[in-house]
Predict the structure.
Amino acid sequence: MDVSSLRTTLLADLQQEVQEQSRFVDLLRNEVSKSIIGQKYMLDRLLLALLTNGHILLEGVPGLAKTLAIKTLSQAVDVNFSRIQFTPDLLPADIVGTMIYQQHKGTFEVRKGPIFSNFVLADEINRAPAKVQSALLQAMQERMVTIGENTFQLPEPFLVMATQNPIEQEGTYPLPEAQVDRFMLKVVIDYPEYEEERLIMRMNANNEWSKIEACVNSEEILRARKTVQNIYMDEKVEKYILDIVFATRYPEKYKLSEIQNYISYGSSPRASISLALAARAQAFIQHRAYVTPDDIKSIVKDVLRHRIGLTFEAEAEQITAEQIVDKIIQTIDVP
């Protein structure tokens, strides 16, 4: 058997595996839709983060079902969920836990914090100071928490979904760049469509919400993650990803000199890794065993918008990271 025939056979086997492993995706979407009307874009991005062991930062005005979305998803996946309301007086111990002195025993015991859940909602994350962000950072990056002299592994799957309000900036702190970079995706949520909001209004008024039933378990998610890692990505698609990321660092090398003065720093290597992983997951939720350039285009803004530093000139001319990404996508040759 020649190399081409072998590749075709392997891809056919992988396609069958993907079809079987991804069956729960449609079931999950249908179950979540009992409680979340519209917002398919947000749900799909939550799935991408879940399938790639990443984290997600949601930005949107209040009332767009961000909290409800992750809570509903946790019910449908049958995992533990916790919500942390970030405030200026929050302490690291309020997130990770602390040592409690047991007087009757004369010893200290560990009291674990809300971070020890599968799905963690960090609500209004930019309202807490840096010392709290550093505690969350270890959990996000290392998947473990240190309390006193003890280090604990966090449960799997583990997903942090953070939210921030783009309108109200009073009493907020800018997130450290190192932490922002550790979010695989930053998703901007918009208002629902007219008919979707009509349905939301009716269902709330009549209290017609259905109970969410678990349709997938954590073991299936962990198995799906292994399949996602095996999704086929051609070398040309890999080069396409690298060209996009490198164009944010050296735009003049890609005939993009007009955006050079708008970029203070380009995307880190985590951008390349996240693009590759998210593209594989995007193919998976579409029940496909290989990545296409369209998969890259569909998720590139969510991966890059928080990884491109803008200059004062860009801010003065109201140039956004999304516009820079659009220009890069229009210029880079598609394989």
Q: What stands out?
A: The first helix runs from residue 3 to 21.
